[in-house]
C-alpha cells in the first residue's frame, strides 16, 4: 500500500505567501481584521513547517497534515470558481427598476478602492437606466463616525447622480443585514420583492451575495461584480472563502 508522505514545505510556502501579502497590504495602509487574521495564519503555518518536534511523528499529526491538504484543494477549487464567475459576467440586456450597492470600508469617510469600484459600476448602470432607484447600503464602520451609505451617497452625488434617486440604508453591519434592510426600504417606498434588481458588489462577492439575497426575500435579482484591485484580490478571495463557510453555518443561504 502506498504511504502518503506529507512534506513541511507546503506549510512554509503558503505561510510565507500569507505573511508577504499581509505585509504588503499594511504598507499601502490597508489594515483590518481581514489582513491581520491571514497574517496570523501565515505565522502559524511557517512555524509548523519549520520546527522539528517529536509530536510531528504522531499519528494525529498525520491527520492534521491530511486535513491541511484537503483544505488547500478546496481553497484552490473555490478560487477557480470565483475566477470563472468573473469571466462569465454579462450585463447586457438588463432592465433594472432598482440598483442596490453593497457597502465596504470607508476610511476617513472616503470610499476604499474596493468600494469606489462598486460605486463607479453602480453609477454607470444608473446612467444607462435613468428610471432605476439606487439603494446604497452600509452602516457605521468600526472607528468611523459616518455610515458607509452616507459616504456612498455623497460619492454618487458628486459624480452627478440625482439625489432624489438615492435611497440610504445606514443600519446594516453585514451582507445579510444589507439585503434585509434594503428590502424593507424598498417595500416602504411602494415597490415589491419582485422588482427587477441589480445587486452591485465586488466580483468575488457576487455568488454569496446572490444566495443571501434570495434567502432574504428578493425574488428577481441579478448581480453585477465590480473589479477588485489586483493587490487586494487574493486576500479578498481568502476572506470570502471563510465568509462562505460562516454564511453556511449561520444559515444565510
TrEMBL record:
InterPro entries recorded: Cell_Envelope_Assoc, DUF218, Rossmann-like_a/b/a_fold
Pfam families: DUF218
Annotated GO biological process: Gram-negative-bacterium-type cell wall biogenesis; peptidoglycan metabolic process
Domain annotation DUF218: ranges: 97-253
GO CC term (a single one): plasma membrane
Transmembrane segments: 35-55, 67-84
Keyword line: Membrane, Transmembrane, Transmembrane helix
Full protein name: DUF218 domain-containing protein
Organism, scientific name: Polaromonas naphthalenivorans (strain CJ2)
Amino acid at each position: 500500500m502506498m504511504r502518503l508522505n506529507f512534506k513541511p514545505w507546503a506549510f512554509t510556502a503558503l505561510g510565507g505567501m500569507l505573511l508577504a501579502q499581509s505585509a504588503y497590504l499594511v504598507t499601502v495602509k490597508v489594515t483590518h481584521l481581514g489582513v491581520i487574521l491571514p497574517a496570523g495564519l501565515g505565522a502559524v503555518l511557517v512555524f509548523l513547517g519549520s520546527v522539528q518536534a517529536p509530536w510531528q511523528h504522531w499519528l494525529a499529526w498525520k491527520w492534521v497534515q491530511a486535513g491541511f491538504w484537503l483544505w488547500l484543494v478546496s481553497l484552490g477549487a473555490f478560487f477557480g470558481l470565483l475566477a470563472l464567475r468573473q469571466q462569465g459576467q454579462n450585463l447586457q440586456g438588463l432592465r433594472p427598476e432598482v440598483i442596490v450597492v453593497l457597502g465596504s470600508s470607508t476610511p476617513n469617510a472616503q470610499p476604499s478602492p474596493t468600494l469606489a469600484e462598486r460605486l463607479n459600476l453602480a453609477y454607470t448602470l444608473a446612467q444607462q437606466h435613468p428610471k432605476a432607484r439606487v439603494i446604497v447600503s452600509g452602516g457605521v464602520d468600526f472607528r468611523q463616525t459616518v455610515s458607509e451609505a452616507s459616504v456612498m451617497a455623497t460619492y454618487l452625488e458628486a459624480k452627478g447622480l440625482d439625489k432624489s434617486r438615492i435611497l440610504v440604508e445606514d443600519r446594516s453591519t453585514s451582507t445579510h443585514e444589507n439585503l434585509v434592510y434594503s428590502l424593507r426600504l424598498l417595500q416602504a417606498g411602494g415597490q415589491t420583492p419582485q422588482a427587477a434588481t441589480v445587486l452591485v458588489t465586488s466580483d468575488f462577492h457576487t455568488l454569496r451575495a446572490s444566495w443571501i439575497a434570495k434567502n432574504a426575500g428578493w425574488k428577481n435579482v441579478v448581480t453585477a461584480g465590480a473589479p477588485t484591485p489586483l493587490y487586494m484580490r487574493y486576500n479578498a478571495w481568502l476572506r470570502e472563502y471563510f465568509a462562505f463557510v460562516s454564511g453556511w453555518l449561520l444559515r444565510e443561504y
